[in-house]
UniProtKB/TrEMBL annotation:
<dbReference type="Pfam" id="PF03668">
    <property type="entry name" value="RapZ-like_N"/>
</dbReference>
<feature type="binding site">
    <location>
        <begin position="57"/>
        <end position="60"/>
    </location>
    <ligand>
        <name>GTP</name>
    </ligand>
</feature>
<keyword id="KW-0067">ATP-binding</keyword>
<keyword id="KW-0342">GTP-binding</keyword>
<feature type="binding site">
    <location>
        <begin position="8"/>
        <end position="15"/>
    </location>
    <ligand>
        <name>ATP</name>
    </ligand>
</feature>
<keyword id="KW-0547">Nucleotide-binding</keyword>
<dbReference type="Pfam" id="PF22740">
    <property type="entry name" value="PapZ_C"/>
</dbReference>
<dbReference type="InterPro" id="IPR053930">
    <property type="entry name" value="RapZ-like_N"/>
</dbReference>
<protein>
    <submittedName>
        <fullName>UPF0042 nucleotide-binding protein</fullName>
    </submittedName>
</protein>
<dbReference type="InterPro" id="IPR005337">
    <property type="entry name" value="RapZ-like"/>
</dbReference>
<dbReference type="InterPro" id="IPR027417">
    <property type="entry name" value="P-loop_NTPase"/>
</dbReference>
<feature type="domain" description="RapZ-like N-terminal">
    <location>
        <begin position="1"/>
        <end position="164"/>
    </location>
</feature>
<dbReference type="InterPro" id="IPR053931">
    <property type="entry name" value="RapZ_C"/>
</dbReference>
<dbReference type="GO" id="GO:0005525">
    <property type="term" value="F:GTP binding"/>
</dbReference>
<dbReference type="GO" id="GO:0005524">
    <property type="term" value="F:ATP binding"/>
</dbReference>
<feature type="domain" description="RapZ C-terminal">
    <location>
        <begin position="169"/>
        <end position="286"/>
    </location>
</feature>
Amino acid sequence: MRIILITGISGSGKSVALRVLEDAGYFCVDNLPPTLLRELVATRVNEGIQMLAVATDARSADSLARLPSDIQQLKTQGHDVKVIFLTAQTEALIARFSETRRSHPLSHRLRPGQNPSDRLTLTECIINERELLVEIEGLGHIIDTSDLSTNKLRSWIKGFVDTDHAPLTLLFESFAFKHGVPLDADLVFDVRMLPNPHYDPLLRPLNGRDQPVIDFLDELPLVAELLHDIEGFITKWLPSFKQDNRSYLTVAIGCTGGQHRSVYMVEHLAQHFEAAEHVVRRHRQLS
C-alpha cells in the first residue's frame, strides 16, 4: 500500500494537502491518533485499498512518540510510506489564525491544575506545538508554506504525489531573502553577490526564465564560476544524502527578491542535474 502521512504545524495547510490527495484517489483520514495508524492500515489492506492518506497533528501529542517506530514497522511490512511535514513562519501562522478567527487546537488543552482563564496565547500555542512535533519534523519532506498561496500549495502537493515513487528527488527552490530563508531547505546558497538585473529598467519586470535576463547573466564570468562551484558541491555530497535514505533533498537558492538571479540559478542547476537525477523546480516568489 502507498501511504502518505501528513503532519505539521496547525494553520500550515494540512487540510488543503489532504483534499488534494483525496482528489488524487487516496482514501483520506483526518486527525487520526497515531496509535490507530497500524490498525487502520491493516483494515484498509483487507478492504483492498491501495492508497491511503492520513493527517495527524499535535492534538495527539501523547502518542506521537511512537510514530517513527510505527512508520518503520509499516515499511518493514512492505508498505511505501512517505511523510509530508507542513510548517510556516510564526508571523504567517498568526496572520492566518487572525484572518479566519479560529482558535489554535492547543488553546483548549489545560495542564493539570491549570485555571481555564490561564489558557495559552496564540504565540505560546505555536511555540508549544513546535516543541511537541520536533521529533517527527525530520521524518519526511518538509514544506514551508509561509508565503505560498493555496493554489501553489496544491500544485506542490500534486508534485509530491507524482514524484513520491522516486528513490530521491533533487528539489531546487528559488526564494527571496527579504521574506526569510525557507524552513524546508536542506542546503541554502546565497547569490546576492551577483549583479542584480533589477537595476536595469528593461529587465526589472522580467524574471530569471526570460531570455533577456538569461542573456544578461550568461555574459558574467562571476555567474558561471558560482554556478560551477554549486554544481560541484552538490555532486560531491549527493551520494551521502542518498545513503541517508532521504526521499527529498531541497536546495534553496536565494537572492533579494526571488525574481531574477535565484530563478536563473535554479533553472540552470535543474537542467544540469536532470539528466542523471529526478529533479523538481520550485519558485517561491513567481506566480
